[in-house]
UniProtKB/TrEMBL annotation:
Catalyzes the adenylation of molybdopterin as part of the biosynthesis of the molybdenum-cofactor. Its EC number is 2.7.7.75. It catalyses: molybdopterin + ATP + H(+) = adenylyl-molybdopterin + diphosphate. SMART domains: MoCF_biosynth (SM00852). It comes from Mixta hanseatica. It is an enzyme of class 2 (transferase). Pathway: Cofactor biosynthesis; molybdopterin biosynthesis. Keywords: Molybdenum cofactor biosynthesis, Nucleotidyltransferase, Transferase. It comes from the Bacteria. InterPro entries: MoaB/Mog-like_dom_sf, MoaB/Mog_dom, MoCF_biosynth_CS, MPT_Adenylyltrnsfr/MoaC-Rel. SUPFAM superfamilies: Molybdenum cofactor biosynthesis proteins (SSF53218). This is Molybdopterin adenylyltransferase.
């Protein structure tokens, strides 16, 4: 069986050096557990903001661990040591600009500084790599989007487009919990869900 494999990389100098406890990986894990109804396996890595190390980790998760999806958190800003997007672009085969554009749109609903995130989405081989900002709360915000008090979607989170993207990359079928995030798929790409 082709089980969904997801790589999670927390990029943080202070968490990697034990100055504070990493909250990136736990926040990613918690959100994925709430959002995915498809079984999945995760590979986690905590690395400092060092471009060669981030590149090496991305390549390892895609090329050796065969992750279908890799999510990074941290290091997307303009500061000198914020190099996650640079590392991601360096290992990319193709760019998926819509993910970065949509994440900044979503994040602007939460913080005016969202424009400072250089986050990108790319494809390496048959894997989708997405950069999320470092604030642990931004993980849910960007993946899930913004809903009103009745749960109606105001701005769609980027994860809504991930299942179809993985499908197009010939990865496993992904089902989500619609209470958290409803996957967008064109009619022609849907499975018969009458059962
Ligand atoms: N892995 C993490 N665990 C807990 N909090 C984090 C983590 N990464 C970032 N944060 C919080 O989000 C803020 C913005 O994240 P950013 O990626 O810009 O980190 P930073 O300021 O470069 O510091 P560092 O790399 O040492 O985490 C941090 O200043 C910190 O308060
Ligand atoms: N959803 C969301 N996006 C966000 C933020 C946030 O708190 N929530 N913080 C912003 C800030 S303050 C910065 S500097 C950039 C880059 O953050 P990073 O270096 O932590 O990746 O992301 C931005 N995007």
């Amino acid at each position: 069986m082709n089980t969904l494999r997801i790589g999670l990389i927390s990029v943080s100098d202070r968490a990697a050096n034990g100055i504070y406890q990493d909250q990136g990986i736990p926040a990613l894990e918690a959100w994925l557990s709430s959002a995915l109804t498809t079984p999945f396996i995760i590979e986690t890595r905590l690395v400092p903001d060092e471009q060669p190390l981030i590149e090496e980790t991305l390549c390892e998760l895609v090329d050796e661990r065969f992750c279908h999806l890799v999510l990074t958190t941290g290091g997307t800003g303009p500061a000198r040591r914020d190099v996650t997007p640079d590392a991601t672009l360096a290992v990319a085969d193709r760019l998926m600009p819509g993910f970065g554009e949509q994440m900044r749109q979503i994040s602007l609903q939460f913080v005016p500084t969202a424009i400072l995130s250089r986050q990108v989405g790319v494809i390496r081989k048959q894997s989708l790599i997405l950069n999320l900002p470092g604030q642990p709360k931004s993980i849910k915000e960007t993946l899930e989007g913004l809903k009103d008090e009745n749960g109606k979607v105001q701005v769609a989170g980027i994860f809504a487009s991930v299942p179809y993207c993985i499908q197009l990359l010939e990865g496993p079928w992904i089902e989500t919990n619609p209470q958290v995030v409803a996957a967008f798929r064109p009619k022609s790409a849907r499975r018969d869900t009458n059962s």
